[in-house]
């Protein structure tokens, strides 16, 4: 075989292997991205469903809250099923089995009347979803771009806002007040650090205004959270949370569009 032909065949072989590896890695990355997105849903809605259940206990005539509880558990169920069809990681599969059991327990709980004891159970279920989602996230990592890292920062804040309101309401109901306040305090500290990271980013003028709004609203929100043992204003805190989430989504959209 002529030397030039041998070189050509070898070169073609290298290109083929490179393309195959590139395609495999690309597919793997796409799968990891999807799993990360669905895990974030489980983490977020696991906190939201616990928070909404506490509000429903306090406001049993608000049927819209009950409907949202069923919507939240359906979202979690869909995310669990989506991850199950994608992941090949055995640890993730084992966690999904536990989360599916958790989800079924909540469905049974939602069919019953709300009680203080069931409120405590719901808080525990929310934490189980959080731990499970974070464990799956740790099993499916890839190298994030700077914009993706910023987007992840906002997603963390979003679920932490839900978590803080959950513990604020739980504290106002005297449900394991000491532990709930400590969990609330830890979440406040985490959000503070994440907002510090956001303030380091060089935003365009129109978004700098939104960042200032975020800082102002957060400062007041945080002060009220720390007063949870003296001042019980859960509906006002929910309104403040929604304002913060609205601002955060506007800023996060910038990073999503710049990925």
Shape: globular
Number of domains: 2
Number of continuous helical runs: 8
> What number is the mean pLDDT?
86
Strand content: under 5%
Please provide the ordered H/E string of secondary-structure elements.
HHHHHHHH
Q: What is the first-to-last residue Cα distance?
A: 49 Å
Main structural class: mainly alpha
CATH topology of the largest domain: Four Helix Bundle (Hemerythrin (Met), subunit A)
At CATH's second level, what is the architecture of the largest domain?
Up-down Bundle
Q: CATH first level of the largest domain: which class? A: Mainly Alpha
Counted beta strands: 0
Largest β sheet strand count, sense and barrel closure: none
| Proportion of residues in helical segments | over 70%
